[in-house]
Amino acid sequence: MLLDHDRLGLPLRLSLATIGAVVVLFLLAPIVFIALLSFGSSPWLIFPPPGWTLQWYREMWADPGWLEAMWHSTRVALVVTALSVGLGFITALALVRGSFKGRALLRGFFITPMVLPVVVLAVALYALCLKVGLTGTFTGFVIGHLVIALPFSVITLTNALEGYDFALEEAAMICGATPWQVKWRVTLPALRLSLFAAGVFSFLVSWDEVVVSIFMATPGMETLPVRIWSALRQDLSPVIAAVSTVLIGITLLFMLIAALFKKDDDHGH
Amino acid sequence: MATDLNPSDPPFLSIRGLRKTYGQSVAIDGVSLDIREGEFMTFLGPSGSGKSTTLYITAGFQDPTEGTVQLAGKSLLNVPPNQRNIGMVFQRYTLFPHLSVAENVAFPLRVRGWDKTQTAERVKAMLKLVHLDQHGDRKPSQLSGGQQQRVAIARALAYNPPVLLMDEPLSALDKQLREEIQFELKRIHHDTGITILYVTHDQEEALRLSDRIAVFNQGRIEQVGTGAELYEHPATRFVAGFIGHSNFLPVKLEKRRGDVADIVLPDGRRLEGAPLRCDAANGSDASLMLRPDRLHLLHDAGTDTPSIPVRVTDLSYLGDTMQVHLATNWHQDIDIRLPLRPGATPDWQVGSMGHLAWVSAHSQVHAAA
Q: What does the pLDDT look like over B274-312, one tens digit per residue?
């Protein structure tokens, strides 16, 4: 290959390694910074921290507001995940297997929430939900997040279905499987990696969502990112660093599960 | 092999008057065929000739516009594919990627509710049949293409189906592997005695495997017969051209005389008593079929056999034979094969003049192109 790593020569390889390290540092520094601050003893977020403590985690734990926000976030994200994967799968089936007119157009339509400026979407959703009285409700949050999460599922699952050989279903059927057995024992297992990926994407999109949530939230119903946002505007407390670290931790946990799941599957190949 | 079947046996699988249309286009039209129990029947034809459509209707994945398919006297139409109890091997590898080889073979038994010990025994026997008993724990993606198709055969035979359908199962494999699995298939057919419907566009494969071959063309069956029958006595010009190589000389049919005819070659030469295989009228155009391996290249014109003067335009050494291209005096290209004997040097060069001769009984008069 023209750009073979081994043939680049030492100076070039060293500079490539340096650039790589700087990029990684640039990406990771804020996350490491916030995690370190959350364990620091200074209430003014002094860096480097003068001492170490778990005080901010205890405060977070003692504040029902934070726990409630976390609970709201989790519930919303789980319901959004289920709906997004379910609806996304049905949509992808229609887009890939259907033979109706305007299929390509419809496909583009399902991806628009990804392309549209989120704030425009948020304003539109807010106006609509206000009209029907859904702002500050669980349903309102689910609808808002679903609009943003669904394109991820649709894209992941249409790609998966396009790479899936439907002759497998014919083979299963001629083997004696009923249509339900075919779907349950062949189609879904064969697509399980992509379904899982769509689920992880959807969960994370909802879990991290700020813009739509800020419009949708009321003091009685807010998600974790919204509470971080509003807490930040009142005062800069290390508790926020602790909450953020928890948020990052759960996100990383999901990525880890996804990676392990994929590795386990690759093992068989 | 099941070649010595009694023709008076009642048909096991009976296809009657099948017709399938998609809007304006006709995929098959009036396909009728009886297949005997234990027979290896091949559907041979070019792509789009309707052979796969007939197979897919038998499998139940498509419904015919008209006609019936009966298995052992019972109609298969209106029976969904999963209840037909038919085995099928597809052109593409259709093993379930998330299941191991053994689980793939066990799949049809699981959905049939077989118990564990029975299933395990049957899976073992089936993997042994296709010589893959050491590979049960592997995933399909760890196997070669040939091995995958053998697993597919094991899976299709696991539940003892009365009929096995095969849709060009070897077309994705390279030539050597294909021949290897063709012999495996012959052995499996012999060992199990199962009835096989096999679709292919490869005439050599069809000749090697089949008890009988049905030649498909443009949605119809042109001829059904053993390989030898099709090669020696092609019923139509299409079969004559599709099975084996053929040269067709454009001729004028002068006079029909029962099974033979008098014809006139393009250079005015008149031939008497050529075997007649078409219903063209006196005075109309026809073609004279000459097989490349039944032609002789001589230095002098034949006296008691038909012959025409030709010029050698190309010679290709093929090991066991010499392929020679010749030009007639009406500028038609003719392809013949001369057997090569070890040590003997061929006495023809490009540009040599000679005489192409044949035995009249080995030629056939077919319809014009």
A: 999 888 889 899 999 999 888 988 888 877 888 999 999
Q: Do B111 and A177 touch (CB under 8 A)?
A: yes
Q: Are B270 and B311 in contact (CB under 8 A)?
A: no
- Name which CATH class applies to A64-267: mainly alpha
In chain A, residues with a C-beta closer than 8 Å to the C-beta of B112 are: 176
Please tell me the CATH code under which domain B245-367 is placed. Answer: 2.40.50.140
Contact A174 B111 (CB under 8 A): no
- Quote the pLDDT of residue B1: 41
pTM: 0.80
Give residue-wise pLDDT tens across range A35-75.
Answer: 999 999 888 888 888 889 999 999 999 989 899 999 999 99
How far apart are the C-alpha atoms of B38 and A136, rounded to whole Å?
Answer: 72
Q: Which of B81, B97, B152 sits opposite A173 (nearest CB)?
A: B81
Q: CA B150, CA B104: separation in Å to the nearest integer?
A: 12
Q: Give A175 to chain B, closest Cα distance, Å.
A: 5
Q: Which among B94, B98, B141 is the nearest to A171, CB-wise?
A: B94
Interface test with B, best of A164, A173, A175 (most B CBs within 10 A): A175
* Contact between residue B229 and residue B331 where contact means Cβ atoms under 8 Å apart: no
Domain assignments of chain A as residue spans, ordered by start = 5-38, 64-267
> A172-205, pLDDT tens digit by residue?
999 999 999 999 999 999 898 899 999 999 999 9
Q: Which amino acid is at B99?
A: L
H or E stretch covering B15: strand B13-22
**B2-240 belongs to CATH 3.10.50.40:** no
ipTM: 0.81
Quick one: pLDDT at residue B130?
92
User: A–B: how many Cβ contacts below 8 A?
Assistant: 73
**Sign of the alpha-carbon dihedral angle for A195, A196, A202, A203:** positive
